Amino acid sequence: MARFSSPLISYVFVFTAFFFFVQLSFGENGGEGSLRPQECASACQQRCSATSHKKPCLLYCNKCCNKCLCVPSGTYGHKEECPCYNNLKTQEGKPKCP
């Protein structure tokens, strides 16, 4: 078994490993696939919180989230964070996801 030459190196290693674990566990990086299906409802609730058309917003947001496992941050815009979410279109070619 390898030994670290100083306690400082081992602390840095443990901290770095923990940091990456936390990022992977909580999806801090965002982007496609960063959510689990059961997290879509709360993410869409946040996304649709500022609209006056809550029912259709929640319906389409949840459909898009379940397909892409991603919801852009904020209540409007930022769709570049989730290309899959951004690229889903209606039959008329309009954006499907709010």
Which secondary-structure class do the elements indicate?
A: mainly alpha
Q: Judging from the principal axes of the Cα atoms, what is the shape?
A: globular
Order of helices and strands: HHHH
Fraction in beta strands: under 5%
Contiguous helical run count: 4
What fraction, in percent, of the residue positions are helical?
A: 40-55%
Total beta-strand segments: 0
Tell me the span between the first and last alpha carbons: 53 Å
Q: Give the averaged pLDDT, no decimals.
A: 81
Q: Unreliable runs, pLDDT <50, ≥5 residues? A: 19-29
Seen as an oligomer or otherwise, the chain set is single chain
Question: Measured on Cα atoms, how large is the radius of gyration?
Answer: 19 Å
The biggest beta sheet reads: none
